[in-house]
Amino acid sequence: MDLDSPPQPETARDRFERIHTDLQTRICLLDYPPGARLSEQALAEEFGVSRTPLRRVLVRLEGEGLLQSVQGVGTFVTEVSLEELVPVYELRLELADLLGRLGPQQPDAGLWARMQEIGDLLGELADSPAPEGRRFGELNLAFFRAFHQITTNAPLRVFSERLFFQTSRLWLKTMAAGEVDVATEARIFQHEVGEVLRPLAIGDIRSATLIHRSHISMSFIRMKRAAGRLD
Amino acid sequence: MDLDSPPQPETARDRFERIHTDLQTRICLLDYPPGARLSEQALAEEFGVSRTPLRRVLVRLEGEGLLQSVQGVGTFVTEVSLEELVPVYELRLELADLLGRLGPQQPDAGLWARMQEIGDLLGELADSPAPEGRRFGELNLAFFRAFHQITTNAPLRVFSERLFFQTSRLWLKTMAAGEVDVATEARIFQHEVGEVLRPLAIGDIRSATLIHRSHISMSFIRMKRAAGRLD
DNA sequence: TAGGATTTGTGCGTATGTATT
DNA sequence: TAATACATACGCACAAATCCT
Description:
The structure is a homodimer.
Chain A: H1 12-28, E1 37-38, H2 40-47, H3 51-63, E2 67-70, E3 74-77, H4 86-98, H5 109-127, H6 133-147, H7 154-176, H8 182-201, H9 205-229
Antiparallel strand pairs in A: 1-3, 2-3
Chain A binds a DNA duplex through residues 11-12, 37, 39-41, 49-53, 55-56, 69-75.
């Protein structure tokens, strides 16, 4: 194998994708929390490039609604609040529904194994002495990336991903504030993974997406109630 | 009036928005048809800026799926084909449905007048001796911009717009190829506008969106049939 | 195969805008 | 109010990639 694959030097596009995915993940996992200010120069130095190609990534992230640049002030991670994200959640529920209605496809063996593994890792997280919100975020992101492949509809995938990044950030922010318990949510999430895999095992994709949708809905309600308790 | 509004110099963000909207419109109306090659230098000179701010706009348009840049080759308008746009159309139909279910709001007087005016202009287009596809595209874009304001759900608006730009280009391309008749389609579209305004007049937004959805569906079917005739 | 023309990508110095002292 | 510090925005020269002769 690998006979005709000499070590390809990284192309400009590859580098762009790498930095883009990296920053996207950091924002999603709250390594850069909402409102944080990013330094173009510091990031450029970290990735070993000049400001020019880095700024290209920032422009893309601004188009995706994750950043906002203001001349003379700085580049900031966009804020997320429960009130502003209500329409986002409403739409996400509908897209979760569409996931099982537009071009559904049976997940392959690798994807199946991956989802089972994520379920196990969620169990470990729930059992750990001090469950970290960031770890929950990682598993949440991993499961989303796997599960949303059940649709072949490319634009639906893109839109679902964009809404996921927004709602996921609010979810982790709520955890970081201690308004919901990480271990409890990890256990609930582990249960969801199992519930979703059961219909998938017999090829019932539609049922899997409806269960997924119901869990998104319930987690939103739990978050609203947790926020209400603190008001 | 206009007492406290001295002539504000155009800010960097304003210029970005202006060039972005301009290029977006040109691509949508097929002034730059699918596959066309754009020159960074020529566009920069036309807008009176250097390549740097212009490239920022191109990066954004690439993120929106309208352009694709390849180093050493050029910047190209993305292709649209009936086969590739089937999933796009399927999703657009669903979003058209959501338009009337997520945060619907009654259009104000100005918007109402605008939609009526577009209906009249469509009649004029259909009656004109040589109806131009580009004029149809302008009115199609204008009506979309007006109609999709019936939802207050911001991300739904953004996603609907993105899908509109894709499907609209295929529609105009089909017209340019002579596979459908501009006058006939203008008349049908004029009829749709009237059909949509009727339920809106009595506050029945949901019915308006369902009629709108059915017209998107029917126009897609007509386009498929027209393409089939030429195969 | 090689070389030149053309196009996008990159690096850097400077301009412009904002906030603070 | 003015000046200073610092951030992003811009323009330009050059590097890298591609295509064609």
